[in-house]
From TrEMBL:
<dbReference type="InterPro" id="IPR006164">
    <property type="entry name" value="DNA_bd_Ku70/Ku80"/>
</dbReference>
<protein>
    <recommendedName>
        <fullName>Non-homologous end joining protein Ku</fullName>
    </recommendedName>
</protein>
<comment type="function">
    <text>With LigD forms a non-homologous end joining (NHEJ) DNA repair enzyme, which repairs dsDNA breaks with reduced fidelity. Binds linear dsDNA with 5'- and 3'- overhangs but not closed circular dsDNA nor ssDNA. Recruits and stimulates the ligase activity of LigD.</text>
</comment>
<comment type="subunit">
    <text>Homodimer. Interacts with LigD.</text>
</comment>
<keyword id="KW-0233">DNA recombination</keyword>
<dbReference type="InterPro" id="IPR009187">
    <property type="entry name" value="Prok_Ku"/>
</dbReference>
<dbReference type="GO" id="GO:0006310">
    <property type="term" value="P:DNA recombination"/>
</dbReference>
<dbReference type="InterPro" id="IPR016194">
    <property type="entry name" value="SPOC-like_C_dom_sf"/>
</dbReference>
<dbReference type="Pfam" id="PF02735">
    <property type="entry name" value="Ku"/>
</dbReference>
<comment type="similarity">
    <text>Belongs to the prokaryotic Ku family.</text>
</comment>
<keyword id="KW-0234">DNA repair</keyword>
<keyword id="KW-0238">DNA-binding</keyword>
<feature type="domain" description="Ku">
    <location>
        <begin position="52"/>
        <end position="178"/>
    </location>
</feature>
<dbReference type="GO" id="GO:0006303">
    <property type="term" value="P:double-strand break repair via nonhomologous end joining"/>
</dbReference>
<dbReference type="GO" id="GO:0003690">
    <property type="term" value="F:double-stranded DNA binding"/>
</dbReference>
<keyword id="KW-0227">DNA damage</keyword>
Length: 250
């Protein structure tokens, strides 16, 4: 797994080296945007209107617009910010998981040990036995994230949390229902209470979409296109031939 962040957990006076790796991946059919008449894929170019040209990736940097002009920001500027959470997962404290509203949950990650560290497994088992989770902070992708750490799937996991100001408020006043209707609704809920088994659920829309695509025939359009896979030896031979032709003409 590719790590998006490497550092250590600050657990009291103990530092535990860890890596933050993505725990989920999207499984869905993705579509390309194409030009209807020729069925070619649409390309997006990074263009500079001032220089009137396409800009290569190596010439693109970060910038922040102010009233007085543009401030350029380098990667060195970002890594030099004096913030402990750039390299350390700071544990603010421990709470019962049910105290955290699921509305705050953002994205899950695996918190993997960089080596066979006894302190890592000590924290894992301590959280598991206590039934508590840790609230932590760490900085990545140009911002500091609030996170929840808990044991799951035989490792420590980390779930980033939304900040309170990121959750929209809904100003609705709950209506009080009729007591008999409420009792009937609760009775219906009790009758239909189930165990949640994730393996029983599949994305039915994606399955139907794949089936629909399998029945369609791809359109074959005759046009000159650059080859996706290039024969290196053939390319070198052509390059040598072109170079010889240039020498002769010179």
């Amino acid at each position: 797994m590719r790590a998006i962040w490497k550092g250590s957990i600050s657990f009291g006076l103990v530092n535990i080296p860890v890596s933050v790796c993505g725990a989920v991946e999207t499984k869905q059919v993705s579509f390309n945007q194409i030009h209807e008449p020729c069925k070619s894929r649409i390309k997006y170019q990074k263009y500079c209107p001032c220089c009137d040209k396409e800009v290569p990736a190596e010439e693109i940097i970060k910038g922040y617009q102010t009233f007085d002009g543009m401030i350029t920001v380098t990667q060195e500027d970002l890594t030099s910010i004096p913030l402990p959470s750039l390299k350390t997962l700071e544990l603010d404290g421990f709470i019962k998981e049910k105290k955290v509203d699921p509305m705050f949950y953002q994205k899950p990650y695996y918190l993997l040990p960089n080596k066979s560290d006894e302190a890592y497994w000590l924290l894992y088992h301590a959280l598991k036995k206590s039934g508590k989770v840790a609230i932590a902070r760490f900085a990545v992708h140009s911002r500091e994230h609030l996170a929840l750490i808990r044991p799951a799937n035989n490792v420590l996991t980390l779930c980033t949390l939304y900040y309170p100001e990121e959750i929209r408020e809904v100003k609705e006043v709950p209506m009080k229902p009729d007591a008999k209707h409420l009792d009937m609704a609760i009775n219906l809920i009790e009758q239909q209470t189930i165990d949640f088994n994730p393996e029983n659920y599949k994305d039915r829309y994606q399955e139907a979409l794949v089936e629909m695509l399998s029945k369609k025939q791809p359109e074959i359009v005759k046009r000159d296109e650059p080859q996706q896979v290039t024969d290196l030896m053939e390319t070198l031979k052509k390059s040598i031939e072109k170079a010889k032709e240039k020498q002769k003409s010179a």
